[in-house]
Design brief:
Creatine Amidinohydrolase, alpha+beta, five-stranded mixed sheet, binds glycine, Creatine Amidinohydrolase, Chain A, domain 1, three-stranded antiparallel sheet, 461 residues, 2 domains
Length: 461
């Protein structure tokens, strides 16, 4: 945990953004895996973690905006708990570690909320995303489940986004440590990418590295020789020469700061000409996009820059044709690069996404597009110093999408469909880094993970 003052300062800053009422944070509860006593690994809610730090189930926090008091509600363990879990610090002692003096058992929460509701006080809460929290919140506030999302507090959502989006140096250091663990995960995965190995051998090994050096993976490992499926969680294929292996994986630590890195390597460690050609286009888009990162630049512009570079590279390879800028503006690149350039990263791997993507990524100045491809861009607004973003361009040959576009002769002025046909067995390539927006530019976080053709071939040999 950070020192207690970090959490008190965060709550103080939140208080300064809001006027009147109570702010209620419900921590996460245990979630059953296949029967009540066999649960998934516990993961605290990120907002609770940010403001109240404590990392175990069945807690709630309240920030009283009028009285300038903070409360943590949770039960002390009894002898039955001690038999199974061992002795635990009292709630009072735990709360002191995050700068909170006022604690009470969970029944006290019911009491406080009841009084607040009776006296008509505003109760700010964020949209819940877990069934258990939805039920708890619904019972507590007497709001039907289906209405909780719309009744969540927009001022609170906006205030949290303002605070959490800008990472301070301590937070950046935590993210960077997780990128360094990802270095170990990815370089190990690259070295294992030999013909005859089954994907799950690599996926299991790199997940084990995360667990042994830090904590759980920050999202289920994406690892496949069928990288044309963007989020491929099937790990049953045997690696064969001629395929590219996409590994998209990161981890989180006990504070829940995360990393999210993608590398793509040729099975066997040597790029063939076709693989090198496409790889260099993605790498150029990755590097060009990262270089464009600085405060004040809309991320949507950087996405379009990467899209234009991809169009330019594919034109050079004879896969696309025409003017690259026009091709990107018309969306022709989305046949090959159908997703967004990146997303914020922090306590959540898609940081803050539970509060609503449009609140996080868009504003009055930059609106979300409805166009295929650009609509998947999770974040479009201007960057600010302290934001941490992923930069993750890719090129994919998705046979089913190619068939649909070709049948429609879609944007045929920019696409050489005959050439595209010959790439249908290619798979996909994505290259992803975690990038901090600095005062005057950017910094790719962590120990550099092999990325150029030469670096990858050298490591894999
Ligand atoms: N890297 C996985 C994701 O962004 O969803």
């Amino acid at each position: 945990m950070f020192p207690a003052t970090v959490y008190s300062d965060r709550r103080k800053k939140l208080r300064a953004e809001l006027s009147g009422g109570l702010v209620l944070f419900i921590g996460n509860q245990e979630v059953p895996f296949n029967y009540p006593a066999n649960t998934y690994s516990f993961r605290q809610d990120s907002n609770f973690s940010y403001f109240f730090g404590l990392d175990h189930p069945d807690l709630a926090g309240i920030i009283d905006l009028d009285e300038e008091m903070d409360f943590i509600f949770g039960n002390d363990v009894d002898i039955e708990d001690i038999i199974w879990m061992g002795v635990q610090p009292t709630m009072k002692d735990q709360a002191a570690k995050v700068g909170v003096e006022n604690t009470a058992p969970l029944t006290g929460l019911n009491e406080m909320i009841k009084i607040a509701l009776e006296s008509g006080r505003m109760i700010h809460f964020v949209p819940p995303y877990r069934g258990e929290t939805i039920i708890w919140l619904s019972d507590l506030l007497h709001i039907p489940h289906l209405e909780l999302k719309e009744k969540a507090s927009e001022p609170l959502i906006r205030a949290i986004i303002k605070l959490r989006m800008k990472k301070d140096p301590m937070e950046v250091a935590e993210i960077e440590k997780m990128v360094d663990v990802a270095y170990k995960m990815h370089t190990t995965g690259m070295k294992m990418a030999k013909p005859g190995v089954v994907e799950r051998e690599i996926a299991g090994t790199i997940e084990g590295i995360a667990l042994s050096l830090a904590g759980p993976v920050s999202f289920p490992v994406i690892l496949s020789i069928n990288g044309q499926t963007l989020h491929n969680h099937y790990h049953g294929n045997t690696l064969v020469e001629g395929r590219m292996l996409v590994i998209d994986a990161g981890c989180e630590n006990d504070l829940h700061y995360s990393s999210d890195i993608t590398r793509t390597v040729p099975v066997g460690g040597k790029f063939n000409d076709r693989q090198r050609g496409i790889y260099e286009v993605v790498l150029n888009a990755n590097l060009t996009a990262a270089k464009a990162v600085k405060p004040g630049v809309p991320f949507k512009e950087i996405h379009m820059l990467a899209a234009t570079e991809i169009a330019k590279g594919l034109i050079n390879l004879g896969i696309m044709k025409g003017d690259p800028t026009e091709a990107a503006l018309k969306g022709a690149h989305t046949l090959f690069f159908p997703h967004g350039l990146g997303h914020p990263l922090g306590l959540d791997v898609h940081d803050l996404e539970g509060l609503g993507e449009n609140f996080i990524g868009y504003d009055d100045e930059v609106q979300r597009s409805q166009e295929f491809g650009l609509a998947f861009l999770r974040f479009g607004r201007k960057l600010q110093e302290g934001f941490v973003m992923t930069i993750e361009p890719g090129i994919y040959f998705i046979p089913e999408l190619i068939d649909i576009w070709k049948a429609e002769n879609k944007l045929a002025e920019f696409i050489n469909y005959d050439v595209v046909e010959t790439y249908k067995d290619f798979g996909g390539i994505r290259i992803e880094d975690d990038v901090l927006v600095t005062a005057d530019g950017y910094r790719v976080l962590g120990k550099p993970i092999p990325k150029t053709v030469d670096e990858i071939e050298k490591l894999m040999q």
